[in-house]
Amino acid sequence: MSSNVSGTSQQEFKWKARVSWLAGDRSTAYTRNNSFLIEKQASFKEKDPSPSAIEYLLGALGGDIAAGFNAVAPRFGVSIDALEISLSGQLNNSLALLGVIGESGHPGLETIEGRIYISAEAEEAVIEQVWRSVQARSPLLNTLKRCVDLNFSLVITM
């Protein structure tokens, strides 16, 4: 069993974040040697100075999937030429997020849909095997699938 720098085994390792409220709907998250600004829980505007918490979640999921493809593809002898992931999420009831009295449901994500566009020199069946392996190894996919309806499609381009 390998250890990280502090001597904790990888099996026992805990990721940590600290979040400080700044003002209004803005907070800063600190993780290891990084920080990022979070604008709101969710935003319905066309533009904001920083991503919302939901947008960070979707972006983190996309990053997790992309990193998974990068890690898994070589094990199947696949070299990826291009990879892009398009994600969208829909709340169960966005009016519950806004606090509208009398609304039922909850403000949590109900569905996340994604399209994975991949270009690689490999048979379609092999790329699909890579995708199944990515799904099996993804921390975020395996967390979210227990509480959100996930719908992904794989689009193989040459």
Kindly describe this structure.
- The protein has two domains: 1-38, no CATH class; 48-157, GMP Synthetase, Chain A, domain 3.
- The protein is 28% helix and 32% strand.
- It has helices at residues 53-72, 94-97, 124-137, 139-144; strands spanning 18-23, 26-31, 34-38, 80-91, 109-120, 149-157.
- It has a three-stranded antiparallel β-sheet, with no helix packed on it.
- Strand 2 and strand 3 (34-38) form a beta hairpin.
- The longest helix has 20 residues, at 53-72.
- The relative contact order is 0.13.
- The model has no long low-confidence stretch (mean pLDDT 94).
For this structure, the CATH topology of the largest domain is GMP Synthetase, Chain A, domain 3
Low-confidence segments, given as residue ranges, are none
H/E topology pattern = EEEHEHEHHE
User: What is the arithmetic mean of pLDDT?
Assistant: 94
Number of contiguous helices: 4
Distance between the termini: 40 Å
CATH superfamily of the largest domain: K homology (KH) domain
The top-level CATH class of the largest domain is Alpha Beta
The number of distinct β-strands equals 6
CATH architecture of the largest domain: 2-Layer Sandwich
Using the CA coordinates, give the radius of gyration.
18 Å
**Could you say how many structural domains there are in total?**
2
Helix share bin: 25-40%
Helix/strand/pairing class, anyone?
Answer: alpha+beta
Please give the largest β-sheet: 3 strands, antiparallel
Strand content: 25-35%
Q: What strand order characterises the main sheet?
A: 1-2-3
